[in-house]
Specification:
alpha/beta; Phenylalanine Hydroxylase; four-stranded mixed β-sheet; two-stranded parallel sheet; 6 strands; globular; disordered N terminus; disordered C terminus; binds fe (ii) ion
Length: about 280
């Protein structure tokens, strides 16, 4: 993708420009395989919000998304945009973007040899997995509010709590809804939506504990990024998420997050980056 990206300014070196004409036939073919596979599985296990969102932002089975086109549709609905980045962003930059309704997305397409496993994010994880949710009014507000709340964090413990809530909702969240398939539970987290192996496991496996999402539980709950999740949290609605982030911000300001339980993840800059874009993005 070397010819595809151009840096915008020196001070914003991680923001780049997508040239949709630079994608090769192979890039489109890989996108197509991933899209078909995932969409088939997601009819039964993905949330309606995701499926409707994918349609609303104009994702196509045969083409790598053109972000300008996605943003025309998305912006008209919720004011969100997907902005191309060259790779991982520092956590602060990432959350600051969210607070401005800008979602950083990588634009590279994974190689065919790594269809099912990729150690870093690509456009399939970032745009297919994340962006359709941004067309939902309440989720869109929740994510912006999350960005603002994270901006208030000043300690490693607070950042750890933020990372845990982000991980168990935006990346690996389950929801309960009448419109969900089996047992009324389906996935809305991007790490599940874009994952070849973990989606069914998360929704159907008896080995997974699915717990109602409560802020006091999730901020103390360690997680590992290198295995299928044995514990996931279920929300009843996106309104619940929106309210919860407001509460999280109150807890930060009240010093209530200064003693979150230890355990994984530890908060290093590298870890932080990986929380925001998990390694298992197949
Ligand atoms: Fe992600």
């Amino acid at each position: 993708m070397g010819t595809q990206n151009s840096t915008s300014t020196a001070s914003q070196s991680f923001f780049i420009t997508q040239n949709p004409d630079a994608y090769s036939a192979e890039d489109h073919a890989v996108w197509s395989i991933l899209y078909d596979r995932r969409m088939q599985a997601l009819q039964a296990t993905g949330s309606r919000v995701f499926l409707e969102g994918a349609e609303r932002i104009g994702l196509r089975p045969d083409r790598v998304p053109d972000l300008a086109e996605v943003n025309r549709r998305l912006g008209a609905r919720t004011g969100w945009t997907a902005v191309a980045v060259s790779g991982f962003l520092p956590a602060r930059e990432f959350f600051a973007s969210l607070s401005n309704r800008r979602f950083p997305t990588t634009i590279r397409v994974r190689p065919r040899q790594q269809l099912d496993y990729l150690p870093e994010p690509d456009i399939f994880h970032d745009v297919f997995g994340h962006v359709p949710l941004h067309a939902h009014r309440v989720f869109a507000d929740f994510l912006q509010r999350f960005g603002r709340a994270a901006g208030a964090a000043t300690t490693a413990e607070q950042v750890e709590a933020m990372a845990r809530l982000f991980w168990f909702t935006v990346e690996f969240g389950l929801m309960r809804s009448r419109t969900c398939g089996k047992d009324g539970i389906c996935a809305y987290g991007s790490g599940l939506l874009s994952s070849y192996g973990e989606l069914f496991h998360s929704v159907e496996s008896a080995e997974v504990e699915r717990r109602p999402l409560r802020l006091e539980d999730v901020v103390h709950q360690p997680f590992r990024i290198d295995r299928y999740q044995p514990l996931l949290f279920v929300v009843e609605s996106f309104e619940q998420l929106y309210e919860m982030v407001g509460e999280l911000e109150n807890w930060v300001r009240a010093g209530k997050l200064d003693e979150v339980a230890g355990g994984e993840p530890g908060v290093s800059e590298d870890d932080l980056r990986s929380f925001l874009t998990p390694a298992r993005v197949a």
